[in-house]
Write a structure and sequence with these properties.
The protein is 60% helix and 0% strand. It is built from five helices and no strands. α1 packs parallel to α4 and α2 packs across α4. It is globular and about 40 Å long.
């Protein structure tokens, strides 16, 4: 394959900047996404192959501008909606609620 998701070994992208003593998670939300993966997997909503395929369905421009755990979140959201665990409307309502709460906490 030669898609944006399969860039390993490709030339002309420059060196990879490695963070010294890089943590597994850079933010608390990444820990929650990691846990969601295992919950969705154990709950039978998706398997590893479905998960990877969903990440590869991301548009190239979105994939390249998002982080590793954002890729995971994209896949988990889509698979949980497709599996019937949550509706898109429920997910969007929760996102709006969390954003509003974050704005209040920031002030």
């Amino acid at each position: 394959m030669n898609g944006v998701h399969d860039m390993g070994g490709m030339q002309a992208f420059g060196p990879i900047d490695r963070e010294a003593d890089e943590p597994v998670f850079h933010a608390d939300w990444e820990k929650r996404v990691f846990a969601l993966f295992f919950g969705g997997f154990a709950g039978g909503f998706f398997n590893v192959d479905m998960f990877r395929a969903e990440i590869e369905r991301m548009p190239g421009h979105e994939y390249l501008r998002s982080s590793y755990y954002e890729h995971w979140l994209h896949a988990i959201e889509a698979l949980l909606i497709r599996g019937g665990a949550v509706t898109d409307a429920e997910l969007q309502a929760k996102i709006a609620e969390l954003r509003a709460a974050g704005r209040k906490a920031a002030h």
